[in-house]
Specification:
Organism: Hucho hucho (huchen)
Pfam family, one: RPE65
Low-confidence stretches: 114-125
Strand order of the largest sheet: 16-17-20-21-26-25
Catalytic activity: all-trans-retinyl hexadecanoate + H2O = 11-cis-retinol + hexadecanoate + H(+); an all-trans-retinyl ester + H2O = 11-cis-retinol + a fatty acid + H(+); lutein = (3R,3'S)-zeaxanthin
Structural class: mainly beta
Helix content: under 10%
Largest sheet: 6 strands, mixed
Protein name: Retinoid isomerohydrolase
Mean pLDDT: 92
Cofactor: Fe(2+)
Strand content: 35-45%
Number of helices: 6
Radius of gyration: 23 Å
Amino acid sequence: MTLIEFEHPAGGYKKIFETVEELSEPVPATVTGRIPSFLKGSLLRLGPGLFEVGDEPFYHLFDGQALMHKFDFKNGQVTYFNKYVKTDAYVRAITEKRVVITEFGTFAYPDPCKNIFSRFFTYFKGVEVTDNCLVNVYPIGEDYYAVTETNYITKVNTDTLDTLKKVDLCNYVNINGVTAHPHIERDGTVFNIGNCMGKGASLAYNVVRIPPTQKDKSDPIEKSKVVVQFPSAERFKPSYVHSFGMSENYFVFVETPVKINLLKFLSAWSIRGSNYMDCFESNEVLGVRKQTLREYIDHKFRAAPINLFHHINTYEDNGFIVADVCTWKGFEFVYNYLWLANLRSNWEEVKKAAMMAPQPEVRRYVIPLDIHREEQGKNLICLPYTTATAVMRTDGTIWLEPEVLFSGPRQAFEFPQINYEKHGGKNYTYAYALGLNHFIPDRIIKLNVKTKETWVWQEPDSYPSEPLFVQTPDGVDEDDGVLLTVVVSPGAQKSGYMLILNAKDMSEIARAEVDCPIPVTFHGMYKK
């Protein structure tokens, strides 16, 4: 299917970055088409919903306060509900009518009502880390948690969307924060990764395991353990890690040139009033270092510099690990282009900014597991279906060149999803993603990673979200199922709807429209 590159001169996309009020009760949706009978659960989504407090704006896409969304399916009907997650960051902001806790790109100034001495000492109390859990939601045991990328996760009731409990993971494992993209095995075991203080007062990375539901009904988080620790390439500058790969026997961790300057984080923050974004820097000397581990295997796999936020899938095949990832080429941090002022600009300005940003590309890297020193200079990859290469250099590092699976100028394949239940960590054929057009989400894409064929859903002035795959219960093929995505169409009579697509051919099965605004959402899940 041919991609039509839409233009957005009317700027309807600005609506997805506007504050909304939470609902007092679920509202019925108007259904067009027929809801598949096997959809009987809930689509849960998270993203920012409050973009300013009083007269103080939030500046970055990842700063707005967390709003949880839910579409419930029952007897062919759909209802929509949303509610703000009552984090400390949210409650204190609403109470004091100002930004109280520093967010990703917004600094919280001291209370202006305090005198100069108490304000001075406020600066030196250390960093107050945000618990604004606007990125994702996932299960741990029988509970569900809204999460961001700090050490705080928030337990929520997925029926009422009530906020139940703030949990500090630092009380259980040695981490400074973990990703919002864990891997969850079929028995409910959760694996995640985060940076930590390692040996010799230097930064390292820990892979954490949280066990499944306990027979004695105790909290699985209390039994969290570090599976493996491995060092950061730079002692005080760990890489920013948004996700990681996991096959049946290996984790794949990519250390990119986008670094968190810990010394800047600890000093400049408390004295000058920086935000998280001020503490990132790009190391233009480093390329990319890849590690493969369940037991730590210290082969240095290197590649040209990229930004990497989302792994698509990782699997093993005849002594190789195949890692498919959504990349952005180069050193510069892509988040530099996600300031709300950029995203709310007129269309020509949005395009102009995107022209300067790193360019997106879906890549396949192949990592050899059986490596011998005498094989210097030759391609170690012998899988017949890929052009990716791995060559050992004289210093013992293995240089990886990828195969490109999808590429279009300023057209990103992002927020990827697969049939995770059946093919997570295994050989697979199809990936689904949100298409970003100069950073503006305006289509859903299906990609055959073997043939590179694509299928597209898009409509004018319509802004969808990450597509979630739900398998047909009796489905045989990998793509027997549906995709669920939340779409905002500002010009329509009912501006928000949940869209159901046939995952086979991307045709519309049904939509459930609601008469209330829905802002941008990042990630979520389908709860059966």
